[in-house]
Every structure is written in structure tokens, then in C-alpha cells.
Amino acid sequence: MHPAAFQDYAVDLLKNTPDVQRVQSLNEAGDTKHPYGLAVTVAGREVRWQLIGQLAEGAKHEPPTAAVQGSPAPFEAAPVTAAPDAWLAGVIGAAESPEIATLDVWSTREGGDGQHGVTITWHNGEKTFVRKL
Question: Which of 6, 22, 25, 108 reaches 20 to 30 Å from 13, CA-CA?
């Protein structure tokens, strides 16, 4: 899924999530440095996420890669007090999108470098990297 489409999907998903007071695109939040991203106010604090896409191997930007459905990604729900990327992956996973194959939470990686983010691998081979700013 291209970052623009995922941004729209994530805004709709997050605005209906408990503890989220506000969600908007980074552009709407005044960030013109990052073309795609989210500004999410959850449990009284704002967290900003940059969205970066990676095409499937051999794919071109036009036409977009067709969506492929399969089993929803396994996930672990995390409370809003957990690491921000674990919480976000839990929210995305709980939606049980048949287009998402896997969710990789960066902060839980063994030997992690302290970065927070989520790599979403789609069944069509594309990836979306959601990096905490």
C-alpha cells in the first residue's frame, strides 16, 4: 500500500481508537518536511510518525500494485503506556486487515538500536515503514 493510501487508512483507524484525542496528517499539523505521516495525540501527548513506502520487487509506481488479501498479521495488543510503536502496531493489528502480512515492531527487536517504528509488510510484497520522529 502506498504511503498516501496508508495515511488515509491510518487516520480513519486511529480516530476511532480509545485514548486518541486527535489524529491528522503531518501536513495538516504543519510539517512540510515529510510528505506522508501522522500526528497522533494519544493519552494527552502527541507522537509524530513518518510514513515511507517500498514497492514490491519489480513493481513500478504506475500502475499501483494490486492489493492482495491473505490471513491478517499476527499481533500483540499493547497498552497506551507501552512503547509507542508497540501500541501503534497493536492498533493496526487489531483491525485485522487481510492485506497486512506481518507487523515488525522495532523497539522489541533483539539488540535494537532504540528506534521506534513499525515495518508493515503487505501480502502484495510492498512495505510501509512507520518511523517515530
Answer: 108
